[in-house]
Amino acid sequence: MNRIASILFLFFWIPAVAMAQSGGLVEAGKAAFAAATLTNEQVAGYSRQAVQQMDAKYPVAGPNDPYMQRLNRIVNRHRTISGIPINYKVYKTRDINAFATADGSVRVFQGLMDIMTDQEILAVIGHEIGHVVNKDSRDAMKSALWRAAGINALASTSGTVGKLSRSQLSGVADYLLGAKHSRDQETEADDYSYQFLKRNGYSVLALATSFEKLAKQGGSGVPQFLSTHPDSRARAARVRNRARSEGLAR
Ligand SMILES: [Zn+2]
Known about the structure:
Layout: H1 3-23, H2 25-37, H3 40-57, H4 66-75, E1 80-81, E2 84-85, E3 87-91, E4 98-100, E5 105-109, H5 110-115, H6 118-133, H7 136-148, H8 152-155, H9 166-177, H10 183-199, H11 205-216, H12 224-228, H13 232-245
Parallel strand pairs: 3-5
Antiparallel strand pairs: 1-2, 4-5
Helix pairs in contact: 2-7, 3-7, 3-9, 4-6, 6-10, 6-11, 7-9, 11-13
């Protein structure tokens, strides 16, 4: 290498190295790579760990709790949905919320059960399962692992599911609870729920009324479920229009 080329090389090389070391670019690069190479099974395994963390953090209704008994009755025919085995639990807090994770865990909060009918609860569950079936939950989990957990440990456990630390898990759980899906993902999850209700002989309008109830909950202390699922009224109208066009509503 002649002298000029060598100087140019140093000129461009030194800042790049300094930036990577100070700004964590190398770490971020490794994390992105590790998250991208996780298998579906690994993502499900990490999701299960995150749910176990949330089950330890929230008050879970026991088998004899009236809320759990009601949920069991509602979902009795739906232990497997679209080939995915589902495990259900109720969190006994006033939050109006529900979520599903990539491992097939569905968690319904007491506050949601308090304001919704059985079929509306099924409509919400159908929507959340829609995110799992459509792989939105898997992608959200990959994103959570990348952003909230130091992913380097995962790269070295290729092919297996490493045990996440308590702080990693709580970061992942917080990220998942605050995760926002895109508008298109929400629309597709709504469509999944609509089909789920229809093929099981429920009223598809339960999806519309569940959104209308959520829309009414606005104002102070807007529940998380609302903030991550915007435009409840528009989505209810969309469901009603479709039901009318299919002769399922007036
Ligand atoms: Zn959603």
